[in-house]
Each structure stands twice: as structure tokens, then as C-alpha cells.
Automatic annotation (TrEMBL):
The keyword Membrane belongs to this UniProt entry's keyword annotation: yes
Record keywords: Cell outer membrane, Membrane
Species this protein is from: Chitinophaga eiseniae
Domain of life: Bacteria
Signal peptide (UniProt feature, chain positions): none
A Pfam family it matches: OMP_b-brl_3
The protein's name: Outer membrane beta-barrel protein
Cellular compartments annotated: Cell outer membrane
Residue stretches making up the Outer membrane protein beta-barrel domain: 361-748
GO CC term, one of those recorded: cell outer membrane
């Protein structure tokens, strides 16, 4: 297969990245750079259907549907790439890629040069525009309201703990990204816990010498926070060096409110206001060495250091059942100084020889968490000290993993196999000391906890993919063996688990033509309890409100049947399935002590069904709209207090973006999100909404980019839950994240163009370590 890449002016595109992607899962079969005159050649390509993907810095990503038959030499001719700059004015370039399209069953967002995403600050704001995706006030991402997707960068996993993931994603601006792929039905080749995958494809910069970018975002609400990032890249003929530095400084705040009341008993209300001060650094260094034409070795080292201060103020007010007489009122101040140090190294190798290709990823990581707290509770009526605690937390996690994949191409078919082994240890030791009546601090055995957890995961899979006429198909089987030992040294309680899980999957795709396709998929996935969920320790929301881990939790399995249809930019998908042994929490209230506990358990099952659609509307040359609509059904079987609840839940979401191209190269966008009443068998969730607006412009020949965004303009985003059975307990919860804020972003491209962000290859175990 031969071809040539040119610009819209007919100039050859030297050193563009050309990738041959397999049907139906878009995995890379082979890739190379064009030569100095824009030419490329792929030899020994087997019969079959492929996607040809063309990437170049500053140009739109181009996809071509390629079919190879009877081993006949194929010449693609000249492929024209459209520069991003030509899309920034008021002239619309014909033939440009749509904002969102479906490729092999995956939703693909074409970010580079796309006006729909120009005014977004970072990846998190872009993901709010994806059909079925929701991003909450703390940056957590969910698909269809129930699945937490794994984040991949350039096809490799980057799962992180919540704080580090948000830090990393907030550093990726739209001008660093080529495309984003959302795979809602990952095949058997991916980890069992990857129920969905978001793959962020970063722009490739092959210019020799130095390139990079520097950016700073300042957000202002009740408090101020700054997010600063520096990215540098140096290219030689064979080696690419990358370096990234990130720094977050400032504050955020949130509020928590709760009501707990049994009939004819006292009423207890809780108010907590938490301010968090950030002083967080992230570092990343990497080198990719192309030592042969089809082989590459990549080494990455990374570190994340967080030095934070948390000040939390809690008030508890108890009145009689009529709400007239005060029973007690307390005021609690909690000053904490959490510190986190994460260090990791990754070695990634991939190669190809003839019809075979392989890749190996090895990771070792060490996560250290330290926290010291002082908690003082006063009687608010007479200002007398009631309790004084001090805590000291030491948490250490070590992760070791290796994964290998092998692919053999045989005509129109591919055979893929691989395996993974991961060994994780975590030790969580927290000590509570309480001030006694003699003004001496003594060890509090009822709250202190020493917990050791070891987990071994061995996995293997085999997958077969093929093509017949307009049909593409794949079938795979994955097996994962898990052994875990949870040892509560404080209570002398040891819990051992050993289980083997078989996870089949299958997909069939029918391509009507280049614009239309249908896809039917069946997937099996598993969710293991994370380390915190298993730890039998009290995690306090307030002095009388906490949740406890459960060492007896079992892993859940999910079976999903999905059907999708796309016609150009219009996409619609639906799925139906059941999760066995889903993990959930339920409340238990003690009216004598006023303690409210949230306990973990496995439910028998949970049924679900979703339908989601996305479509753009082009009003005229300067006004574009995009709509995402979703409908969701849930029904979980929940035994609680000798009654089994199985209440069907129906809800819907509406997400709309309006983008206006204004004179003088300004871009204005408006985004609106609404979620209706929802919940589960025990709680009702109140509606949620937010309204965002942003304005963007480039300067200095597009090297300087300025943006101003206002998120949650009307301060409407809140998470509120109400317990259904008030005869058992009147329990209401409310979380407010302070999402209303103004953000000003300034970024500047160094060198000839923006560099390629270093790849962060984190694995599933790191994500579960600090969830």
C-alpha cells in the first residue's frame, strides 16, 4: 500500500504520522512517518478492511476506509490534510471531519481545529459534551450514570486516583489533543474492570528540535486557585524526549448537610464546611527510542506530590421531635495536613515483524499517604471542650504489574492473545489519641486501625477478529484469577478470597456504507472492591456520621448487550444488562447515641437499560449546536430491614452546546446540562443542572490563546439524596462543591508548534489504590 500526504496548498506533508487501524476495534496494526516528500509505504498487508489515520501537528485528523483484497497493490493517491488555522475564521472548509462520529462502534470526537471545543479549558469540560458522559463537581467521570470509564492516553491505560487524575486531565487543553475515542463496549483484550474506555489521542509533533507549551489557568469563586503547566519536547531522528511539570496552588471549598430523624425522636441536623488548600506538584520525564523501523522502546518516570491543608468546621444541632427544644448543640473543628507522594516508572516496548506484532508494558509504583489531624469538639451552648482527638495516618501502597499482548494477522482475520500479572500490597495504619480527664492523650483502640491488604491478579485472554463482506466480527474470552488477603491487625480478622472469573465478549458490525453502520455487542466485565471499601475502619463525615469498610465484600460481574447505529454525525445507542452482586451502602441510625453509619454490602443484583443519542445542528456558518439526550432505567434488588425493595427508577439527561463564531476571531460557547429526578431503591436523588459560558480568542499568529469561562453560572449544581422510607428514618443528604467559578486561561506555544504530552501509563491497580 502506497500513498502521499499533501496540504490544502498541494505541499508535501513530510513526517506526518500514518497509522493503519484494524477493524473492528481500531487497534494499530502498523504505523510510520511519511518521508520528506510526504510519501508512505506499507508492505505485507494482509487482505482485510482497515482505517487509515493521518495525524500531523496543526492539521485535522483524517480517516480513510481502506480495503485490501487478493494481495493486490493499493495506491491511495494524494490525501489532503486541512490546516487548523483555516478553520478559525468565518469560512467553513468543506470536507472537514464532523465534531462527533462513530468509527467501528466507538464515538470519536475530532478535537483538533474543531470550533465546538475551541473555548473549552481542558479535557474535563470537553467530556461534558460527549453523549452519555457526566462529569460531577469534583471531576469524577461516569458513563450512563453508572460506569466509571478508564482513561487511556495514546492507546495505553492511565488510571489514577481521583486527585491525580483530575490534576492530569485539567492540564490537557484542546490544542494538545487530536481526538478522543469513547469505547462503551471494550473487548476481552482489556482488563476486566474496564467497563468503558476513554482514549485521548494527543497531537504528534515530529518537528526536529525543541517544542512545547506553557499555560496557566486562574479560577475565582469564594476562593482562588491557579493551575500551571509546562510541557517540553525535544525530537531527534530516532529519540523523542518529553518533560512535563504541573503545579496547582490555591483553595477549593465544599459543604455537606444532613438530616437524620426517627419518628417521635430527636431531630439531628449536620452542617459541614470544608476548605482545602492545594500545593501540588506533578513531574513527568520520558524518552521514546525508535531503534528499528517497526520497533520502539519507551521509558517514563513520573511523580506526584501533594502537600495540602484541610480545615473543616462541623455543627451538630439536636432538637426534640417538634423542633422547638434544643437537646444539644456542638461545634467541631478539624485541622488536617495530608501529604501524598506517588512515584512510578513504566517501560513500554512494541514491535512488528511480518504478520506478527507485540507489545509489553511493565509498571512499578509506590504510593505514600500521610495525614495528621487535630479534632476538637465544643458544646456550642457553653463553649466547653467535650472531645479532643489527634490522628496519625500512614498509608503505603506498592504495585507491580506486567502485561504482554501478541497479534497474528492471517488474511482477513486476526488472532490476538495476551496476559497480565499484578501484585499489590497496601498497609493502612491510623492511630487515634484522645484527651482523657487528666488532660493526657491516650491511645483510642475503638477508632485506631491497622489494615494490611495483599492482592494477586493473573489474567489471560484470546480474541479472534475477522471480516465477511460488509460484516466485521470479533469474539473473545478473558479469564482472571484473583487472590486477596485482607488482614485487620487491630481486630485480628483475616479474610482470604480466591476466585476465577470467565468473561466472554462478542461484537458484530454491519457497514451499510461509509456513513452508516450498525453494531451489536455483548460484553462481560467485573468490578473488584477497592482497598478503602474493604478496610473495616470508620471514615468520618462528622463526629456522629461515618461510613465503614467491609472486608467481606465480593466482586461484582456485569453482562451487557448493546446496539448502536450511526449515520454521519447522528449517533444513537442502547444497552441492557444485569450486574450481579453490585456493591452499595445503606444507613443504620442509633436513636440513643445519634450515630448514623453507612455500611457496605453486596446486593443480589441490579438491572439497567440506557438509550443515548447525539446529533449536531448547523444553523448557519457562524452558529452550530450539538445535542445529547439520554434515558436511563435502573432496578436493584435491595433487602433492608426485613423488607426487599425493588423500585424501578427512570431518569433522563439533556446536554446542549451552542457555539458562535463571532467577528474578530472570537468564539463564544454556551453549555447547558440537566438531569431529572433519579435515585435507587432506598434514596431519591433530586434534579441537577448547570449552565456554562465561555469566550475564546487566539493572538500572535495563533501562538497565544486566551479563554474566559464561567462554570455553573447560576449556582444550581448540587447532589441531594432523600431516604424513601421515612417510617424507618428521615435521612436527607446534600453536597455542594462550589462549582460556580470564573476561569481565565492563558497558554502560549513554544517553538514551532505544541508538543506531544508525555504518555502516562498507569494501570488499573493504581486507580483502585486511592479511590
Amino acid at each position: 500500500m502506497t500513498g502521499k500526504i499533501t496540504s490544502t496548498h498541494g505541499q508535501p506533508m513530510g513526517y506526518a504520522t500514518i497509522s493503519l487501524l484494524a477493524h473492528p476495534d481500531s487497534t494499530i496494526v502498523t504505523q510510520q512517518l511519511t518521508d520528506s516528500v510526504g510519501a508512505f509505504t506499507f508492505n505485507h498487508i494482509r487482505n482485510g478492511r482497515y482505517w487509515l489515520r493521518c495525524l500531523a501537528m496543526g492539521y485535522e485528523t483524517v480517516y480513510r476506509d481502506i480495503s485490501v483484497t487478493n494481495n493486490t497493490p493499493l495506491h491511495t493517491g494524494n490525501i489532503t490534510m486541512t490546516p487548523v488555522s483555516s478553520l478559525l475564521g468565518e469560512v467553513v472548509v468543506s470536507g472537514s471531519q464532523p465534531s462527533i462520529q462513530r468509527v467501528n462502534g466507538k464515538l470519536v470526537l475530532n478535537i483538533s481545529g474543531n470550533r465546538l471545543f475551541k473555548a473549552d479549558v481542558n479535557v474535563l469540560s470537553i467530556l461534558k459534551k460527549v453523549p452519555g458522559l457526566e462529569v460531577d463537581g469534583e471531576g469524577a467521570i461516569q458513563l450512563s450514570g453508572r460506569v466509571t470509564p478508564a482513561i487511556f492516553i495514546n492507546g495505553k491505560p492511565t488510571t489514577m486516583n481521583a486527585a491525580e487524575l483530575q490534576h492530569y486531565l485539567s492540564s490537557l487543553s484542546p490544542d494538545m489533543i487530536s481526538s478522543i475515542e469513547v469505547d462503551a463496549t471494550p473487548s476481552a483484550r482489556f482488563d476486566a474492570e474496564h467497563k468503558a474506555i476513554i482514549n485521548i489521542q494527543l497531537k504528534q509533533d515530529i518537528n526536529r528540535g525543541w517544542n512545547g507549551s506553557i499555560s496557566s489557568s486562574v479560577q475565582q469563586n469564594a476562593y482562588t486557585q491557579a493551575n500551571n503547566n509546562l510541557l517540553l519536547q525535544y525530537n531527534t531522528s530516532r529519540i523523542t524526549y518529553t518533560a512535563r511539570l504541573g503545579y496547582i496552588n490555591g483553595n477549593t471549598h465544599r459543604r455537606y448537610q444532613a438530616l437524620q430523624h426517627l419518628a417521635s425522636t430527636d431531630v439531628l441536623t449536620t452542617h459541614t464546611h470544608t476548605v482545602t488548600r492545594y500545593n501540588d506538584f506533578s513531574y513527568q520525564l520520558g524518552a521514546a527510542y525508535h531503534f528499528r523501523k517497526n520497533q520502539q522502546l519507551e521509558i517514563t518516570g513520573r511523580a506526584y506530590q501533594a502537600n495540602q491543608g484541610i480545615n473543616s468546621v462541623n455543627t451538630l444541632l439536636s432538637t426534640d421531635a417538634a423542633g422547638k427544644k434544643v437537646v444539644f448543640s456542638t461545634y467541631t473543628g478539624n485541622n488536617a495536613a495530608p501529604k501524598r507522594s506517588n512515584y512510578a516508572a513504566d517501560i513500554y516496548y512494541n514491535g512488528q515483524a511480518g504478520n506478527n506484532s507485540w507489545q509489553v508494558l511493565t509498571t512499578i509504583a509506590r504510593l505514600k499517604n500521610r495525614n495528621a489531624e487535630e479534632i476538637q469538639t465544643y458544646d456550642a451552648l457553653n463553649s466547653q471542650l467535650q472531645q479532643y482527638w489527634k490522628t496519625n495516618l500512614n498509608n503505603d501502597i506498592v504495585i507491580r504489574s506486567i502485561q504482554a499482548d501478541f497479534t497474528h494477522q492471517a488474511g482477513n482475520a486476526r488472532l490476538i492473545g495476551g496476559g497480565k500479572f499484578a501484585y499489590t500490597t497496601t498497609q493502612n495504619n491510623i492511630r487515634y489519641d484522645t484527651l482523657n480527664t487528666t488532660n493526657q492523650f491516650e491511645w483510642d483502640s475503638s477508632r485506631s486501625n491497622n489494615f494490611l491488604y495483599r492482592e494477586y491478579i493473573s489474567a489471560g485472554y484470546l480474541s479472534y477478529e475477522g471480516k465477511f463482506r460488509k460484516f466485521s466480527y470479533s469474539a473473545g474470552l478473558r479469564a482472571e484469577y484473583t487472590r486477596s488477603v485482607a488482614n485487620s491487625l487491630t481486630t485480628l480478622q483475616i479474610t482470604t478470597r480466591n476466585y476465577l472469573t470467565w468473561l466472554p465478549s462478542a461484537t458484530i458490525t454491519f457497514a451499510v456504507n461509509e456513513q452508516q453502520q450498525y453494531q451489536l455487542s455483548f460484553t462481560s466485565k467485573m468490578t473488584r472492591p477497592n482497598f478503602v471499601q474493604l478496610n473495616p475502619f470508620r471514615f468520618y463525615n462528622s463526629p456522629l456520621n461515618y461510613w465503614i469498610g467491609n472486608p467481606y465484600l465480593l466482586a461484582s460481574t456485569t453482562r451487557t448487550l448493546s446496539l448502536s447505529y450511526s449515520n454521519g454525525p447522528f449517533n444513537i445507542s442502547g444497552n441492557i444488562g444485569r450486574e450481579l452482586l453490585p456493591m452499595a451502602r445503606y444507613p443504620e441510625y442509633n436513636p440513643v447515641t445519634n450515630v448514623l453509619e453507612y455500611l457496605g454490602t453486596n446486593l443480589p443484583y441490579s438491572d439497567f437499560a440506557d438509550i443515548e443519542a447525539g446529533f449536531p445542528i448547523k444553523v448557519n456558518q457562524w452558529w452550530h449546536m450539538n445535542y445529547n439526550l439520554g434515558g436511563h432505567y435502573r432496578k436493584e434488588l435491595n433487602p433492608y430491614h426485613q423488607v426487599t425493595y425493588a423500585i424501578p427508577i427512570l431518569d433522563y439527561t439533556i446536554n446542549s452546546s451552542q457555539v458562535f463564531t463571532l467577528p474578530y476571531r472570537f468564539t463564544l460557547y454556551i453549555n447547558y446540562y440537566y438531569k431529572s429526578v433519579s435515585g435507587n431503591s432506598l434514596y431519591i436523588s433530586r434534579p441537577m443542572s448547570n449552565f456554562d459560558v465561555g469566550l475564546q480568542r487566539t493572538w500572535l499568529k495563533e501562538k497565544l490563546n486566551t479563554k474566559i469561562n464561567v462554570y455553573d453560572l447560576f449556582d444550581t449544581y448540587r447532589v441531594r439524596f432523600i431516604f424513601r422510607e421515612k417510617s424507618i428514618i428521615d435521612n436527607q443528604l446534600s453536597h455542594w462543591f462550589g462549582t460556580r467559578r470564573a476561569v481565565f486561561t492563558l497558554s502560549y506555544q513554544l517553538g514551532k508548534a505544541a508538543g506531544k504530552s508525555p504518555k502516562s501509563t498507569k494501570n488499573e491497580e493504581e486507580g483502585r489504590a486511592n479511590m
